[in-house]
Amino acid sequence: MNIGVVCYPTYGGSGVVATELGKSLAQMGHRIHFITYNRPIRLDLFSENIFYHEVRTKDYPLFDFVPYESALASMMVDVARYHELDLFHVHYAVPHASVAYLAKQILKDYDLHIPVVTTLHGTDITLVGKNQSYEPVVRFSIEQSEGVTAVSKFLRQATYDNFQVKKDIEVIYNFVDTRRFKRQDKDHFRKMIAHGGEKLLIHTSNFRKVKRIKDVILTFARIREQVAARLLMIGDGPERAPAEELCRELHLCDDIIFVGNQNAVEEIYSIGDLFLIPSGSESFGLSALEAMACGVPVISSNAGGLPELVIDGQTGFTSPVGNVEKMAKDAIYILEDEARWKTFSENAYQHALNFSQDKIVPRYEAYYQQVIEAQKSVNY
Ligand code: GMT
What we know:
By secondary structure, the protein is α/β, with parallel strands linked by helices. Helix content is 44%, strand content 17%.
């Protein structure tokens, strides 16, 4: 198949899923055309089956906002026409699903009928997309997509609840590349960071409000009262400065290390003892899955799709959003007993295997086939 992939190229989970999926499909022999404004962060290899088409906007003094959507639709039309695309797969509904609809309409003028699969990822449904500035367009473009997938059962239900769409939505969970994300021997690295034998806790995100970064710090502060530990904060975003401020107030700067955006996160997860993800909303929690694949148990909130990933009491613990007391108590319970930690770690690893790329990627492939076949039976 020739597939046009539209996504955000940044550190966000939707772009990571889009890129990893494209890389896997390329290995399986499909030709993947990424269409976006920057080379996706995880697109770190050369493959004869992977192509990258950069969307270039044209600024003009009249514009307060450069019309990215028009430039993207034009590039999608161009790629579909000259690279014989069989399907568009767009990740994150805003604005990609409506741009795909526009591109699809234009392509009909060239007698090309390219189906669109839209994957809903999270705040495109739970936060941004349901805002009245976008809601009618999001609802319309979900309805008009030939195929729609959601990354958890929670997100599928949220889409029905928030948008009253009549569409069948296929749940295809996030996946992890278990060849890359596995616990590696990084003892020397661990000794550098935890020279006094401290436990290492990890949080990764794009530091937005929805991630409740303050809860990460407050949970850690409570753990730190009973267990010698350090916290590695991976990522960056608007909540980083207030978080650093809170660390100063709590006099925890020596034990909380902000490492910024990182590419080789699997090396950091390999020295992790616990992963903290107390989000106020989380459709799945890809970063937690990648940590679990490296044998790191997870302390999470019970928001959204997190309970579909974190098995309470086995691979970690889930708590009501904001309950930092319970999160700290659960974390200490796992950390204070080495044998218990090992059991949680092994459980986390084993459960992550249920979400391996070998299990999940073929589901996308089969879904594409189904959508393409259904499209062939439509008369124009
Ligand atoms: O929805 C977002 O906040 C952005 C999105 C992204 O692009 O980073 O993240 C979502 O998609 C990930 C991949 O499917 C999921 O694992 C995350 O749980 C989800 N984030 C939220 O729902 C907050």
